[in-house]
Amino acid sequence: MSNILENRTWRYATKKFDPDKKVSDQDLELLLEATRLSASSYGLQPYHVFVITDKEIREKLKPVSWGQSQITDASHLIVFANVTDFGEELLDSYVQNVSSTRNIPEESLKGYGDFMKSKLLDLPINVKSSWTMKQVYIALGNLMQAAAELKIDTCPMEGFEAKAYNEILGLDEIDLNASVVLPIGYRSEEDETQHYAKVRKSKEELFTYL
Fold first, then answer.
1. Which residues pair with 51 in a beta bridge?
2. Fold entry, domain 3-83+129-188
């Protein structure tokens, strides 16, 4: 079995982290760069990622995360926040980035910029928010798999009160919404979950070849 499958079999949603084991700065930078390089629709990356180590903030977030210990015990707490609404500024900023990165005149990218605007700007706010949240999960998957490659444990969590997170982190003021949380670190030897067999659908049930 290749390392790809071995690492995916090794990882699991860690329920109990060892609070004394910390992810190194070097490994953290690798994880964040893997996240930054993640694919997203149109390449827009309509989200922001918060890396939280502050103990006081994490203690405030724990009660609104159903009291789950991962929030405070993991080495780092990653909060993915999707953009809830956007206008031309998001798309124009991306076009400018493409122009600068690829040394292409902005004028030659106007057609692509106009195409994105025609597809996205008139969407209702709730549809925009739903779409940006989907982009978050692509980045989340990339971060989780990069962590597995480094034998760093993770636990993707939707079990939290998003409105409370938004208030504590001041996200409403900047048109962001906490959409998913990812504690990262190292599993505790006391976490019995690590010994459970991984339960997934069979290939026959999951895949259809046409």
1. 78
2. NADH Oxidase (3.40.109)
- How far apart are alpha carbons 185 and 14 in whole angstroms? 9
- Max CA pair span of the chain: 59
Tell me the pLDDT band of 1, cut-offs 50, 70 and 90. low
Q: Look up residue 176 and give its amino acid.
A: L
The burial class, CB within 10 Å (0-12 / 13-18 / 19+), for 194 is middle
Residues 200 and 122: their CA atoms lie apart, in Å, by 40
| pLDDT, tens only, 129-153 | 999 999 999 999 999 999 999 999 9
pTM, two decimal places:
0.96
What are the DSSP calls for 125-184, one per residue?
A: HHHHHHHHHHHHHHHHHHHHHHHHHTT-EE--B--S-HHHHHHHHT-GGGTEEEEEEEEE
Residue 188 in contact with residue 16, Cβ under 8 Å? yes
> Quick one: CA dihedral 11, 15, 19, 25, positive or negative?
positive
Cα(52)–Cα(129) distance, integer angstroms: 23
**pLDDT tens digit sequence for 91-101:** 999 999 999 99
Question: What is the predicted pLDDT for the residue at 202?
Answer: 98
